[in-house]
Amino acid sequence: MDDWRNGGFGLYLHWPFCQSKCPYCDFNSHVAASIDQGRWQRAYLAEIDRIGAETQGRVLNSVFFGGGTPSLMEPELVAAILERVRATWPAANDCEITLEANPGSVEAGRFAGYRDAGVNRISMGIQALNDADLHRLGRLHSVAEARAAFDVARGLFDRISFDLIYARQDQGLDDWRHELREALAMAADHLSLYQLTIEDGTAFGDRFARGRLRGLPAEELSADMYAVTQEICEAAGLPAYEVSNHARPGSESRHNLIYWRAGDYAGIGPGAHGRLTLGGVKLATEAPKAPGDWLQRVERGGHGEVPRVALDARDRAFEYLMMALRLREGLDLTRYQAMGGQLNSSKINELVEIGMIARDDSRLWATAQGRMVLNAVITELAGD
Amino acid sequence: MTQLDLIRNFSIVAHIDHGKSTLADRLIQLTGTVADRDMKAQMLDSMDIERERGITIKANTVRLEYPAKDGNTYILNLIDTPGHVDFAYEVSRSMRAVEGSLLVVDASQGVEAQTLANVYQALDAGHEIVPVLNKIDLPAAEPDRIRQQIEDVIGLDASDAVLISAKSGLGIPDVLEAIVKRLPAPKGDRNAPLKAMLVDSWYDAYLGVVVMIRVMDGVMRKGDRVRMMQTNAVYGIDRLSVLKPQMVDIDELGPGEIGVLTASIKQVRDTRVGDTITHERKGCEVALPGFKPAQPVVFCGLFPVDANEFEPLRDAIEKLALNDASFTYEMETSAALGFGFRCGFLGLLHLEVVRDRLEREYDIDLITTAPSVVYHIYMKDGTMQELHNPADMPDLTYVDHIEEPRIKATIMVPDEYLGDILKLCQDRRGIQADLSYAGQRAMVVYDLPLNEVVFDFYDRLKSVTKGYASFDYNITGYREDFLVKMSVLVNDEPVDALSMMVHRDRADMRGRAMVEKLKELIPRHMFKIPIQAAIGGRVIARETLSAMRKDVTAKCYGGDATRKKKLLEKQKAGKKKMRQFGKVEIPQQAFINALKMDG
């Protein structure tokens, strides 16, 4: 691993706008009538310059355009940003540059421009392979549009991932098996398969609280769906390398691995979070969420961040444990201990005994069964 | 010193919610004892718990000055008595300190069992009783029917009952006139040796122990050296006051007067409710009759949720005990819960009040174990042991037989719920002693084992009658029965704090209810957990809590780290509210809730 230190170094750029807000989404996204892309470009570039000065000389492993809907960005804007990124940090040979895209026809028309700007991986929010469910999820595209957009991407990018949401309202186990096989037949090299989660502060969250969101699977069915997902993907050559992420070996998302390996990442854009080790201290950075607020701060205040928080050894170690156990590869014990992390050996033995975790001399990881109840495993391991 | 014929001492007898505190507030207000701007609701209930629950736990008193229509100004002493059966002895002492009572009855609800118990106390004390019908302005008020009921049930002539609305103030002047005209003045001999009753006592952070007294004979003066006849302790009176309801110092209290004293008494434990106070020299010969030492009837274990809080708990219990002589405690060690205390209480309400105060005033999270009554274990060698804690049950081979306390329970209920009440009492091993009607209400008297009542009987009673039943009891004695110790095993480990004494015929049912409840109360773990109830080595009920199957966050990327970390930390903090038994974590609430039965 290149750096920083051992977890890699990445750059996350947040584009906060969407054409419409999906009822399940609790990400920082906003619907705006018009967007002055030139003004946003100046702000992003200023922030890249500022963070670049703090992290001079670090080798960049990854850039990720997330959102919101980054495929609403003009290719020229993406190109300007990537040009400035290349001028700021030396890039690793295999530097991964991902952009999240909606699989609509308009977006697909911009894919070539993104490739020319330097994007080498596309992550598409397909979410479902049947129109009725896409509609219920509040998506604006159809399955046919999504497949067409996927084909366009296929012709332009070597690396393509897409997202599906399952454990949807009224979805049966066989419905999902079938849909998942169709998805695997599309031959992407990476799939993010998320169980529908009802988050507070979303339209689904409100409906759920009022008892108006029916047909969600009970724990048994959702556990079965998860187990089936693991089986089918593994058989198709895309095993899970993380709780919800599957890839052909070698095609894992390098960017997301930085998060799960507790590496360093800079976060730029409204609501973006970062983790930067500066002067030996790991800092948690965060930007204000409202797009207008962020823009103004960058333009007038010289930076788009709320005050940084230094993480102490306990925080750092807990974060690493929490993130790394999501990965099949698990936790590097030497690194964990170097951070000041502690483990209770009798707790470990108990969890090993009931088949939730396994370990060898250098690593500790959650088993497939343990990953299904990972929150309990983590709270158990983190003890007091 | 006031002339005896210008004094009236009285208490108010009423069921909860029938308006006792509101009437007291109105009397205080109308006599101008407290300026309007200083009035707050339930003036006499000083503890938060009293105000919240609308009950009176400690006796309190207020001295009112009332210029009557006859031109004289009277001193009216109101003693606000505790209104709950747990404090029956304290009530009886307060009753002996006054000559009359106002019987306040809700003009639509009528007489309740608790009212009845307190009326009998008042009659026992020889009181003149003035019936007062409250809430007369409500549309549901039926004064004629309730008058008739008072005559039928209590045998009291209610034709000249005073009609009032304590809330609006209607009829309050009539109450004051009735007190003066219809209640007798106290008797007493100013020249006899001092004889005063210790009515109640409490701890005040500034004054130390404050003792409420009623002077029967003689005169008590500031500076006097007095002797408590039960404890034989001698104190010099530092301060003598009357309560208005603030303390107003006074030089002496004569016969018929009620006031408070302070005397450098260290702890409330040194004072005994019902004791007689006299002068150290030339004191009276014979103490007032009726003194009884406090006798706890319900015991339970109190353990800190966090084992590190044992010391703070010890401090809190010691402090609380200073102010509550009726509550007993001794250290207890539980294999499951570690160090804690076995505590004795006058009844369930008393238990809840003490527990609430420990949690609230001292900020300690507690695990309360199953309440237990005191069993008499007769051994084969002819000795008898008192059993306060099922965990201490001796080996059965040495036990000859076991006796349990029985009670006489009086329940009043609208007749449409009578069937449910009979079933409830029958299910709880009750034997019907009496059943009679007064209008639309039935009065049932049952002989019941206290251990069937001690836990959730009152809750059940309220729920099957939608709150319309009232209930009162007194302990009648001990009787032999087929009692066994039931233990509970969670994940094959015995949890001593959940063991309990039950009747053999009820054991299977209780065991099943217990394991079913525990299955709901214990959160799912990563492994399956057998939950069993057993008598000796024999399992009588079993449930299996299946393993948790899925608990994982679907999405967790860079931006989520902080939020998810907080979430997991909250989950971790939640675990601190649980106690570990072997590999299983049991939430604090489970210990008490596991005992609640639906039938």
Textual characterization of the structure:
The complex is a heterodimer of chains A (384) and B (599). Chain A is α/β, with parallel strands linked by helices and 384 residues long. Helix content of chain A is 41%, strand content 22%. Chain A is built from 16 helices and 15 strands. Chain A has a nine-stranded mixed sheet with strand order 7-8-6-5-4-3-2-1-9, sandwiched between helices. Chain B is built from 14 helices and 34 strands. Helix content of chain B is 25%, strand content 34%. The longest helix of chain B is centred in the last third of the chain and has 18 residues, at 504-521. In chain B, helix 5 links the parallel strand 5 and strand 6 (162-163). Chain B is an alpha+beta fold and 599 residues long. The A-B interface holds A 12, 27-28, 194-197, 219-220, 222-223, 226, 243-244, 256, 258-259, 265, 267, 271-275, 284, 286, 315, 318-319, 322-323, 326, 350-351, 354, 356, 371-380, 382, 384 and B 525-527, 548-559, 561-562, 564-565, 568-569, 571-572, 575-576, 583. Chain A: It is found in: Cytoplasm. Chain A: GO terms for molecular function: 4 iron, 4 sulfur cluster binding; coproporphyrinogen oxidase activity; metal ion binding.
Task: Describe this protein with a few key phrases.
heterodimer, A: 384 residues, alpha/beta, TIM Barrel, Arc Repressor Mutant, subunit A, 2 domains, 9-stranded mixed beta sheet, 3-stranded antiparallel beta sheet, 15 strands, B: 599 residues, alpha+beta, 8-stranded antiparallel beta sheet, 6-stranded mixed beta sheet, 14 helices, 25% helix, globular
